[in-house]
């Protein structure tokens, strides 16, 4: 594993994991998970670290990073509290009146009608306490919001799917 420390104004650093190589005989034994957890354990408490990023990750590394970041967010009391507050809104599928296009572009919400404050608070807590980048904190919020959906309510799943497609169109 290689981690480079990039300078961030004024006196901070942004560590970047550039490669994570596990040889074939040692794959699927949890070594990559443990290595990435160790990087997080050593770099997260440092006050000069702004966020921990990954340079050009493979699909497997994206999946591993998402898993670890979701796990870390669920273990963090503030993030779990924010998710529990919004669980009922997500299950109801949001409000009927969608916000304007400009407001949707500026928000970090996933479900239409969901208050921007929950997504913003979640993102802020994840960025400060877990040293996640803004994009990764949004991604983790989306994953955990989908995790909270009640699958027996197809209208909630459809509303989430529509909102996620809309967010994807706006950001790309």
TrEMBL record:
- Recorded GO MF terms: histone acetyltransferase activity
One of the record's GO cellular component terms: nucleus
Q: Where is this region: Disordered?
A: 90-113
Biological process annotations from GO? subtelomeric heterochromatin formation
Under the heading SUPFAM superfamilies, the entry gives: Acyl-CoA N-acyltransferases (Nat) (SSF55729)
Q: Where is the signal peptide?
A: none
Xref: Gene3D superfamilies: 3.40.630.30
- Sorted alphabetically, which PANTHER family does this protein's record hold? HISTONE ACETYLTRANSFERASE TYPE B CATALYTIC SUBUNIT (PTHR12046)
Q: Please report the name of this protein according to its UniProt entry.
A: Histone acetyltransferase type B catalytic subunit
Please spell out the taxonomic lineage of the organism that makes this protein. Eukaryota, Metazoa, Spiralia, Lophotrochozoa, Platyhelminthes
């Amino acid at each position: 594993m290689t981690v480079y420390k990039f300078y961030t104004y004024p006196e901070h650093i942004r560590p970047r994991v550039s490669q994570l190589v596990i040889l074939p005989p040692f794959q699927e034994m949890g070594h990559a998970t443990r290595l990435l957890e160790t990087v997080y354990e050593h770099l997260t408490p440092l006050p000069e670290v702004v966020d921990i990023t990954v340079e050009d990750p493979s699909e497997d590394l994206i999946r591993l990073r998402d898993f670890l970041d979701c796990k870390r967010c669920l273990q963090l009391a503030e993030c779990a509290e924010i998710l529990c507050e919004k669980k009922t809104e997500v299950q109801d599928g949001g409000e009927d009146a969608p916000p304007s296009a400009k407001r949707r572009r500026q928000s970090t919400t996933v479900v239409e009608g969901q208050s921007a404050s929950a997504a913003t608070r979640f993102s802020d807590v994840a960025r400060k306490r877990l040293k996640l980048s803004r994009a990764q904190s949004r991604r983790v919020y989306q994953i955990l919001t989908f995790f909270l959906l009640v699958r027996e309510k197809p209208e909630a799943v459809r509303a989430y799917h529509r909102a996620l497609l809309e967010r994807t169109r706006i950001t790309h």
